[in-house]
Amino acid sequence: MARLNLITTIDQPEQEQNLAYKDRPSWFRNWEKTGLLQFEDKNGDGFIQYTSTENNEMVKVDRDIMVLANPEIAGLPNWVIALVAAGGLAAALSTAAGLLLAIASSISHDLLKGVIRPEISEKEELRASRIAMAASIAVAGYFGFNPPDFAAGTVALAFGLAASSIFPALMMGIFSKTMNKEGAIAGMLAGIGVTLLYVFQHKGIMFIQSTAFLGNMEPNWFLGIEPNAFGAIGAIVNFSVAYLVAKKNPQPPIEVREMIERIRLP
Q: Which has the closest alpha carbon to 80: 88, 72, 92, 90?
């Protein structure tokens, strides 16, 4: 609907010619100020030409603004526009808050206290949690100002990385009593390693374009799969490596297998 609103507002098919740039609506002017919407009168006729060819004069229409701009494009009241903006902000903040808590607790409690320093005090654990949260905010802020893709693409990358690392380990941990820690760790490292290699080859190391490597390779060279969707291949690699490594190592202790049986009960 947002795309339809944009096209019909600019093209105005019921008229004989496109919308004049000087008559552009207020929403157009407002989003131009942000730099997320840009117009260039390539043929100098003073009218907006919106096409899918190289003659397109809408030289930039950021996909991330479409949902937020949609109520304004449709001419809805200001309070509706405010509700959409508030909803988007609330959704972003609630998601970020949950993820920050998960990151902080996994680093301070699971990794630091559970593996590296089991003797750490609660006060030190809390301090580590705060440091981990601050570092996460810094990294997220960097990617907010330098996104590796538009919003949906960035989310797809995040889920792809999760699919190639965490998902197979969780599934095998529940449904396979022979899966051991060696297999799970090896599978996770292999899955996320292959996925990151493919993603970084397309988008640059840590999504910094100037650091792209293997540049002589064609885009989407593996079966035509885009990097945003490569998490599925990473998951297959994860499953395969984990199974092979688990077969070469002893089974988990009896208490772990009994715990899995208890988990399976309704």
A: 72
Which of the 8 DSSP states describes residue 21?
G
Give Dmax over CA atoms of the chain in angstroms: 79
* Percent of the chain's residues with pLDDT above 90: 20
Burial of 220 (0-12, 13-18, 19+ CB in 10 A): middle
Residue 173 pLDDT more than 90?
no
Give domain limits for the chain.
2-76, 77-146, 148-266
Cβ atoms 150, 63 nearer than 8 A? yes
Nearest CA among 103, 110, 98, 166 for reference residue 133? 103
Residue found by looking up tokens 């630091």 in the block: 112
Give the bridge partners for 37, in sequence order: 61
242 Cβ partners below 8 Å, 6+ apart? Answer: 168, 169, 172, 179, 183, 184, 186, 187, 188, 190
pTM: 0.61
